[in-house]
Amino acid sequence: MKNYVIKRIGHSAIILLGISFITFLLLYILPADPVRQIAGRSATPETIANIRRELGLDQPLLAQYWHYISQLAQGDLGRSYLQKTEVTLLIQSRLTPTLILMISAIFLELLFGLTAGIFASVKRGKNADKSIMIASFIGVSSPQFIVAILVLYIFAVKLHWFPIGGYGTFHNLVLPAMTLGILGSGWYSRVMRSSMLDVLRNDYIRTARAKGASEGRVIFIHAFRNAILPIVAMIGIDIGVFMGGVVVVESVFGWPGIGQLAWQAIQRVDIPIIMGVTLVSAIAIVIGNLIADLITPFVDPRIRIRQ
Amino acid sequence: MSTLKRLIKRKVVIFSVAIIGIIVSSAIFAPLIAPFAPETQFREGLTLEGSPLGPNSKFILGTDLLGRDLLSRLIYGARTSLLIGLLANGVAVLIGTFFGIIAGFLRGRIGSAIMRFTDLMMAFPALLLAITLSAIFSPSLFIVALVIAMVNWVQIARVVYTQTLSISEKEFIEASRSLGATNTRILRCHILPHLAPFILVWSTLGISTTVLLEATLSYLGIGVRPPTPSWGNIIFENQTYFQTAPWLVFLPGLAIVMFALSFNFLGDALRDELDPTQRGREN
Question: What is the CATH number of domain B12-29+69-274?
Answer without folding.
Answer: 1.10.3720.10
